[in-house]
Amino acid sequence: MVGFIFLEIKATVTDPLFQIKGTSLTVVVLELYNYSPSDFLSQLTDKVQAAAHFFEQSPVLINLEKLVSDIQAADLLNLVDQCRQLRLQPVAIRGSHDQFGAMVEQTGLALLPETRSKDRPLETNPVTDKTPEATDGADKSAIDTTNTGSNGTPDNEPAPAAVEAGAEEITTSQDQTTQIISRQIRSGQQVYSAADLIIIGNVNEGAEVLAQGNIHIYGTLRGRALAGVQGNTKARIFCQQLSAELIAIAGNFLPSEAIHQQNYPDPVQVYRNGENLEISAY
Amino acid sequence: MAKIIVVTSGKGGVGKTTTSAAIGTGLAQRGNKTVIIDFDVGLRNLDLIMGCERRVVYDFVNVLQGEASLTQALIKDKRTDNLFILPASQTRDKDALTQEGVQKTLDELAQTFEYIICDSPAGIEKGAQMALYFADQAIIVTNPEVSSVRDSDRILGILQSKSLRAETGGEPVQEHLLLTRYNPTRVAAGEMLSVEDVEDILAIPLLGVIPESESVLKASNQGTPVILDEDAEAGQAYDDAVERLLGNEKPHRFLDVKKTSFFKRLLGGKT
Questions:
Q1: Are A187 and B160 within 8 A, CB to CB?
Q2: CB distance A206–B161 less than 8 Å?
Q3: Integer Cα distance of A246 and A118 in angstroms
Q4: DSSP E strands, chain A
């Protein structure tokens, strides 16, 4: 999913004619590996026909980051045209400005900067940014869609992969968007988010919530919460009431005993201060 | 349309079978054709609690394996009309339970019965999962102590992910909390979790609170469902729970410490 976030600017003049607001929308991402006009059209037609209603007039982002061969301006124009023939709406192209800037200008579409997920610090990794995942390479172009829009709650999705053998019920999201779960996490359940994680409900004893980013719990944390599991030391844990079995940020943890020795007013946040975990009001 | 109700808890010894017997009897007393199935294959208990252990000829596993028909295996209760028991096998283990077999049996029972009560074994393994898989409703039996609450929480998670309704994305299984062995005096002394504590952690609707009572043990040993003991508080509390299960409002009773009169205390009267 790719979203567009704009700053909200309130006009100060009297009788404003407009207001600029932020929004985020779900788009289809077409990740291009190679381009040949006839093959592309036939493969895309197959994809679109598989779910005609889904693709009908849906906005499409063409991602050139995974391109393995060169592409000419004429090809790009042709590609955009073919998308339109199939009733898709290309809205933007993602790729390096130096490489594709001039070409994209000819198409009249917006050019979005590359996702430099590797050299970007994790805490600024926006909630709307999707890092392309490796595909099996069977298709020359893969259409990657997710349905986690601003109101998306992928809470009941079947787990695509187990994080830990033995844990029975796992909700795992490799999606680089904030995962919102509006139910209580029960003993024995595990939730993993590749970005931020928001739980609306309690995290009960024996439950485990993990996120590469921050964890927000609108309820009581009685189980385990591990934020910044891929090493983001700036990640934080927020909860309305803390009586956790364990809290951890980027590998440094406090067990229940140590948590209860500290005095803190609820609600609390937990963050890294050097090598220590600090618990404080927010 | 038959309603399948699983009585489950995760933890053992909290009162699942006592509850299955009481609720099943209560439903039958009100004119609903009810069957109670013992899913605890290998550790048969329901027949004892129901006092029909001498009449067991064929069991649930015989039916599953086609060795007996349902009519041969079902035991008609002698005290309560409309009530039948399908006992478990004492000689087999839980592997005898297959999903197809259980489904076939439940489908067949659903043609004649209004309520099918599945008395789950303890644990979260195959037996417990089979008992809850086809459930429309679940009664979570919990004692007011931390380990029982944690195990109930676990079984609720399994209900929400491994039941047929969860797997097919249907209406979620309707959950009811039944707190058993509740002792208000010990709650007041801080030795037991309160109703509020348990509700806070499990966050499911409260079906009833059954007070800790000697009459439960007595009824079990006599093979009489405690709900038939109208003088016992536990029996009355189960009766209320059945009413609530049928959708009728009933105030919760027996939650507070009873005030014993001065004379009663002086004479050493039992509470």
A1: no
A2: no
A3: 29
A4: 28-32, 59-63, 89-94, 110-112, 141-144, 169-173, 179-181, 189-193, 197-200, 208-211, 215-221, 224-227, 237-242, 246-249, 252-255, 268-273, 276-281
What's the angle, vertex CA A226, arms to CA A220 and CA A230, rounded to 5?
Answer: 155
CA–CA separation, B196 and B200 (whole Å): 6
Contact A144, A132 (CB under 8 A): yes
Q: Which 3 state secondary structure label does DSSP give A83?
A: helix
pLDDT in tens, B205-215: 999 999 999 99
At residue A160 the predicted structure's pLDDT band, cuts being 50, 70 and 90, is very low
- HSE, CB side, 13 Å, CA atoms: give it for residue A279: 24
Mutate to test the interface with B, among A199, A204, A209 (most CBs of B within 10 A): A204
Q: First CA to last CA across chain B, in angstroms?
A: 43
Facing B154 at nearest CB: one of A156, A184, A206: A206
Helix (H, G, I), strand (E, B) or coil at A14: coil
Q: Is residue B263 within 8 Å of residue B235, measured between CB atoms?
A: no
- Output the six-digit token pair for B214: 């000697």
**For residue B122, what are the CA distances in angstroms to B11, B165, B199, B221?**
5, 21, 21, 20
ipTM rounded to 2 decimals: 0.78
In three-state secondary structure terms, B208 is strand
**B101: pLDDT confidence band, cut at 50, 70 and 90?**
very high
DSSP B141-182: EE-SSHHHHHHHHHHHHHHHHHSHHHHTT-SPPEEEEEEEEE
Distances (CA, A) of A56 to A51, A78, A87, A91, A163: 9, 19, 6, 14, 36
Q: Which residue has the tokens 């010990």?
A: B186
